[in-house]
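Task card 7
Instruction: Convert sequence to structure tokens.
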Amino acid sequence: MGLAAAAALTGGVQAFELSPKAQAMLARGEAHADVSADPDGISGRVRGVVDIDAPPELVWKIMTDCATARKMMANVTGCRILSGDQARGWDVREHVTRRNLIFPGMRIVFRSDYEPHRRIRFNLVEGDLKLQQGEWRLQPLRGGKGTRVFYENRLAVDWPAPKAMIREALRKDTPKVLVNLRRACEAAV
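Output:
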């Protein structure tokens, strides 16, 4: 999953402004997600955030490991690197998903550009989505003992399903993905 950030932020600055609702959910130890229609009417925007009790280096390692993709996203049946190398700052990955009640099975190929332990920007290369453009941003917490993970994704599909139904599915699934990431990271500490 991934949206181009509203602003190109650097260092430990957060990726987007947290709403009072998001701040309250984080304070309770919950993940937060907001899904809205983009003004262009073609795509939707997903924003999510979760706090993880693990250092950014460990969160990074788990997020970028193809083997973890299935743990994070229950509908992913395959992940493989097609070209590039994370050590060189980029790669092209393929995710294959299985069908569920809302979404058909899909093949999604995307390029990720890496700023180690800080940010992953991703863009659709080919596949069954119409548009996918986003980023993951890691912000150190408590002197690097914890990590706030921001997720943004601008995406569009070319399916005959109502857009409101797709947005609602994303609103429910995004926090699950973030909580699954937290579980995987905290289990590895």
